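=== Structure Prediction Worksheet ===
Name of assembly: unnamed complex
Input type: mixed (protein and possibly other molecules)
Chain count: three
Listed entries:
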Amino acid sequence: MKKAIVILLLAVVGWVLVDTFFQVNFGESRLGELEQQKTVGAFYLNNTVEKLTVANVVTAIVVNYRGFDTLGEVTVLFLAAAGLGSILYRRKEEGEHDVMVLNNSSQLLQTGARLIFPAILVLGVYVFIHGHLTPGGGFQGGAIIATGFLLMFMAYKDYHVSHNVLTWVESLAGVLFVTVGIWGLISGGSFLENVLGTGVLNDLVSGGVVPIIYIAVGFKVAAELTGVLETLLNFKTKK
Amino acid sequence: MVISPVHYIALPLLAAFLIPLFAKINKELVRIIPGLVLAYLSAVSIVLMQKVVNTGQPVIETLAGWQAPWGINLVFSAFTGFLATLMTFMALLIWIYSYRFKKIDSEPAMKYYILFMMLVTGSTGIVLTGDIFNMFVFMEITAIAAYSLTAFYRDRDGAEAGFKYLLIGSFASAFVLLAILLLYTQVGTLNMAQIAERMHTVPTGMKITILVLFVTGLGIEAEMFPLNGWAPDAYSQSPGPVGATFAALVVKAGVYSLIRVIFTLFDIHGAFDFLVIMGIITLVISEFAAMKQTNLKRMLAYSSIGQMGFVLIAFGIGTKEAVFGALFLMFNHAVIKGLLFMSGSYLVYNTPSKDIKDMAGIGRKFPFMTFFFALGAFAIVGLPPFAGFWSKLYILLAAADEAMLGLVAIILMVSIVEIVYYFRVVAKLYWGKPTDNEVYHKPTFGGYISMTILAGVILLVGFYPDVITGFIDRAADTLLDKGEYISNVLPKVQELVNM
Amino acid sequence: MDPVLYNKIVSIGIYGSAIGLILIGLYAVLVKKHLTKIVIGLSIIDSGIHLLFIAVGFIKGGTAPIFSPKGIELVNQGTAMVDPVPQALVLTAIVIGFGVTAVALSLVIRLYRHQHTAKIDHIKSLKW
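=== Predicted Assembly ===
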């Protein structure tokens, strides 16, 4: 009975969504003439190269035009990590110690993990350093690095990341982001304003503060995701 | 560095990122820093409010150096500034109250203060931002902080309440996200002023779909019926100061977003009637539900939902007087519910069963707490000469002006219900037969200070409503004048259109 | 193949699968009894909405909005670039979705520790 009602509801929701979205033609350009800059998308495509010298327009939007959103996003992650810590907090009892997985995994996974772990870290760092040139950026790079740590957690029973280090990395990266913003406020006139020279398009050092912010975001996301994984996987047990 | 609205967001974030580092130096700093930040922001509010009142112009802050439609902007107008100031001061008082509220381990204490500060920042951000997607981001910051704080205490059913809140809240964010997506495909911009300007180009069917998605999503945050299932649990299971924050800040932000979307973004007239109807349903159902509650905090939560229904009715009437009354009620509700939650949590705290009937006679043991609670109860039901009287009066007059006599009758009837259940509690507190419970949790010094201030404000506004009506009057004007909002935010674009 | 028909089939495929994901997630949230499955349902709904974001930003024959040497060459040949804004928004939305999922999972763990069950039927105060 309940299922029938649910399926009826799903049919209604589905019909409304399909009906609405089919009014939005797929593959049609809604940007308008790029030069007229009627829409924000057109403005960004038209001006990013000239004014910001950032090759990846999505990065330019995420970090500069809508950088305030990204600050909020980073805060959401920070909050999720803090919330997790507060929700799952439990005092360690006598003789308990932290464990991630109950048993060591197979030799194969352990050796493979040790081999591939540095490569994952390097890939992650590459992705966020080149965030303004190629697809990817701080969030993606940070997520890649966190998968490397996840692999190590799965492979080794006693693998731990120091909470101290994670706290320092995420706090300093967050402080760096906000400080760059305040620097813009002081010397440029508005929060997060690009106050550095922009360089040459497609150079590694170009785009002013954009790469700096994205690197800070990369470190912060990596530290936070690793922290979240650690808190979720962690349980306390007596030997 | 000039004082600008961006301080409301940047400083708490900087402080939140720094708190884990300061915790390594001295544990006490964790508790003190949020208070310093909130005190500074209160000072910022006063300066900015003065500026807005003196110049008559909103303070508009562009971010990242991009003019309004291209970048995100913060708008501190007479309306948003009024709400932001109210929220900041309430947050400061709640901080004073929650300083050493309950002994907790230093590790959770750090998280508590970070989450509390983000709850405040998120709510203020919702009010100040001029960008619809940015509003969504702040909504989520508020929501995640709220979920975590609801589940803060281990010895209550916080996790259940938190999960329920999260489940409903996720639907809210899904709805809002879909609405923003559809809106973007139609108008090609995310700036609220520009959306408002281009709204007339959107086909009516699409407009209604978007509006329904928005109202459903934001109605959840604004505790509109039938989307408020989360509220009583979240209020009653969360720590006392957090309950006060929900009532004084989070719900206000939810109502604000709903009002902003309906008043500024859309020009559909039926939406106002819809608000009135939903407001009436919310008001009637929740006030009757409040009467049945045996748990004090759940009763306060239902009463809070009812008051929000009242606010929605007043906004729905849509005339200047009604909007004035609605804003006045929002102010009163923040102050009075803040006081009720603050004193109520100590009453609950000293009653292990948390049941109203076990609180009998507690007034003799806690004369101050009970006095504050009684004062809040008298004020919120709208007895003269307390603050709540004036807002109720203005809304009733506005309804009468519009010849909505049925509405007046309903409001008066519901007021009687309200009086019955509040007076029942107050009578029980004073004249009930005391059961001897040995638990004594004396309020902290900070608790006394903030409750005394709130009680003072209630009496002051009750006797001299003029201290606040000037600000509310400007705020109401600002909210209703949509053209001015657009031209203030988008001066350049306006020139382009005129050329 | 007729371009109009082709366009229609593609749009049914793309929008249909995104909306299908939303419906699957909704079904999981409404019907499933296990809290973890409900959380999975929520994140499936999120994924569907994210796909919709990407879909509406797409422009037929468009290329990625990156002005790399190759991208500039394509633009000079007259290729359009897809709308970058939904892609930027979806990045934010994904991260927020992650945060909510993490908090949800931690609440499930708390509930499990507390009540030793994760079935919604056994948790009284979740009924309403």
